[in-house]
Amino acid sequence: MGVHVTTSEEPTAHARLVDLHSHVLPGVDDGARDVDEALRMLRVAEEDGIATIAATPHADSVTPQQILDGVAELNRLAADAGLRIRVVPGSEVRIAADLPARAADGRLVTLADTPYLLLELSLWGDWPPFLLEAIYSCQVVGLWPILAHAERYPAVQRDPGRVLPLVERGVLVQVNADSLFGRNGRKAQWAAEELIRSRAAHLIASDAHRSDSRPPRVRAALERAAAVAGEEYATWMAQAAVDVLRGAPVTPPQPEPPRRRRRFRWLFR
């Protein structure tokens, strides 16, 4: 079983992948600690078949100019090290009450200078009541939101259908590659598989932080997605990631209603 991807640069190429979410930019957040580690991460990604990787540091940890300068320098160092992988800029922006103002001022770093913006929620907080309003505020100013690592949010782990109102409003949903193998816990694994099975998740990315733990690999996760939802859909997901970095509109298929997680009550006598 193989996942096939076509890119605009290589019309008949197979399995040239992109990774939309990584913390490969060195020394700016909780990702790569230094240049050597960043280069090791890029080498791992290239060996996995990733042709382009987005550096998406947490926006609260770094300025837009630091991201742009850091990406340019990392590309130079990667080329000097004999790597062919391309790094493009991005950021991971926390969805908070001040997001509308931040989106309106035009200083958020989008993925590869496209309209796509990677957004995240708190992994420990509740599903925010202002979420749809914040999403709409981004769309009004021409941004196309992507919800990062949806399967890791407790509300989605309880009910993956929580993402459907976002999908209906044009939000793309991303899941982490390692969640499909249980590395973020069984609840996250179940939620990731259910989101993919129901076609309520559209993108797989690594959210890489290190070269050894949480590495920048996506190929095995796409193969797992093929086992869960079929090879055709896994191939569509891989191509959707390519289209995002091209700035092309992505039209997801109609999702099925995801199942809620069953709760078991244990009785002790």
Structure description:
Its EC number is 3.1.3.48. This is protein-tyrosine-phosphatase. It catalyses: O-phospho-L-tyrosyl-[protein] + H2O = L-tyrosyl-[protein] + phosphate. One of its GO terms (molecular function) is manganese ion binding. With 269 residues, the protein is of the alpha/beta class. It has a single domain, classed as TIM Barrel, CATH 3.20.20. 35% of the residues lie in helices and 13% in strands. The chain has 9 helices and 8 strands. It has helices spanning 35-47, 64-80, 99-104, 131-140, 154-158, 164-168, 186-197, 219-229, 231-246; strands spanning 17-22, 50-55, 86-89, 92-94, 116-120, 144-147, 172-176, 203-205. Strands 4-5-6-7-8 form a 5-stranded parallel beta sheet. The chain has a 3-stranded parallel beta sheet with strand order 1-2-3, sandwiched between helices. Helix 4 links the parallel strand 5 and strand 6 (144-147). The longest helix is centred in the first third of the chain and has 17 residues, at 64-80. The relative contact order is 0.16.
Query: What's the total number of strands?
Result: 8
* Major beta-sheet overview: 5 strands, parallel
CA-atom Rg in angstroms: 18 Å
The low-confidence parts are: 6-14, 264-269
EC number: 3.1.3.48
Protein name: protein-tyrosine-phosphatase
Family: Belongs to the metallo-dependent hydrolases superfamily. CpsB/CapC family.
Catalytic activity: O-phospho-L-tyrosyl-[protein] + H2O = L-tyrosyl-[protein] + phosphate
Give the SSE layout.
Layout (H helix, E strand, L loop, with lengths): L16 E6 L12 H13 L2 E6 L8 H17 L5 E4 L2 E3 L4 H6 L11 E5 L10 H10 L3 E4 L6 H5 L5 H5 L3 E5 L9 H12 L5 E3 L13 H11 L1 H16 L23
Parallel strand pairs: 1-2, 2-3, 4-5, 5-6, 6-7, 7-8
Helix pairs in contact: 8-9
InterPro entries: Caps_polysacc_synth_CpsB/CapC, Pol/histidinol_Pase-like
Keywords: Hydrolase
Family: Belongs to the metallo-dependent hydrolases superfamily. CpsB/CapC family.
